[in-house]
Amino acid sequence: MTWDVAGIWELAGRAIGPDGSELYRWEAQVTMRADLSVTLQTRGERLSRSHSYAERLRALPDGRWKLTYGYEMEPDSGAPEGYEFFGMSQLTFAADLQSAQGNSCNWNGTRYVVMELALTRAS
């Protein structure tokens, strides 16, 4: 199977504390493009939008795919004034390219946030 994940994805995220406990849940819409770039727009109380850079894709021996990328917040994303972040994500796509699981961590200037990610293809 060839790599084709361009389109819209639904994301369910969980922020994880240092002891492994859940801090909060969040949702987002993810747009992936054929050039591997990723845009993530959160929904609900925690509004922000981020864009990827330095994307790396590799095929795994079992037919899955791993995408690793850096990202940074878009300044006019609806987040509170003065709030910024940047981070790294890793997503492992199922062989059928309909879902992905992964992790992400970011730095917002005062603390690190570690997250678990679950994506399902919407279109």
Describe this structure in words.
By secondary structure, the chain is mainly β. The protein has strands spanning 7-16, 22-32, 38-43, 49-59, 65-73, 86-93, 99-107, 112-121. It is built from no helices and eight strands. The relative contact order is 0.23. Strands 1-2-3-4-5-6-7-8 form an eight-stranded antiparallel barrel. It has one domain (7-121): Porin (Beta Barrel), CATH 2.40.160. It is 0% helix and 60% strand. It holds the Pfam family Cap15_CD_rec.
Outline of this structure?
The chain is built from no helices and 8 strands. By secondary structure, it is mainly beta.
Question: Keywords for this structure?
Answer:
123 residues; Porin; mainly beta
Layout of strands and helices, then pairs:
Elements: E1 7-16, E2 22-32, E3 38-43, E4 49-59, E5 65-73, E6 86-93, E7 99-107, E8 112-121
Antiparallel strand pairs: 1-2, 1-8, 2-3, 3-4, 4-5, 5-6, 6-7, 7-8
| Count of the domains | 1
Helix content: under 10%
What is the CATH first-level class name? Answer: Mainly Beta
CATH topology: Porin
Beta-strand percentage range: over 45%
